[in-house]
Specification:
Radius of gyration: 22 Å
Helix content: 55-70%
Strand content: 15-25%
Number of domains: 2
Largest sheet: 4 strands, antiparallel
Length: 245
Amino acid sequence: MAEQRDGIDRVVEQAGRVAGWLARASWEAAARLPGGEAAQRQFRKAERAVLDQMRKRLDEVDEEGTLSGRIIAPATPMVLDGQVDPLRTAMAELLRRSAEMDREQSREYVFTSLLRQLLPDEARILSALSDGAPYALVHVAARAALGGQQRIVLRNASSVGRAAGVTLPDLVPNYVTRLEHLGLVEVGPEDPGLSVQYDILLTEDRVRAAEEEVRTVRKTTPRFARRTLRLSTLGRQFWDAARPG
């Protein structure tokens, strides 16, 4: 077990070193530098290994009922009309844990829950945001008729996907929306200093498709609400606790 854990730690350390290199060089620029393509391949391989091992560890936590090395016995099953009620049992388990865990254990439980919900591309986005710099974000809306409310056709398109080198660029708005719902990122006001990012973002496929939908289907003028994206306070705390390396 110790040998296996040492192997995992080496993979995590390797991923952290390569991720740091790519963050400094930027994902797109990395491929044009000497050794860049090899570094990208190495990162992808290490990333998959880290995610696989992390999920195994999380599964072990669930199976063994342990948290921070402490054994937590499962709650007594709740019985209704002679049969175990899974909803009541699950609620009893949560209430019992809330009474038994201290502050640090509760914090770890929250972060573990968040980690289990992340997709690989979303982890990559968090990594790109981890240096604190904001990224351009745009909502595409249909101009409202007189007295009406404008309708948002595309929400949370962001330049962070390009910087992070996500596998599925078309899903960046979905990724950002999920991360926002988890409380890990926050949307702020427009930053004039990101004008180049905004210009590039408006040329991306999903943004152009949303613009075309507004013009041809809704027969009105598209409006672009410029915003910024960065880690939230919870997002920074989560990244500090979970980042590799």
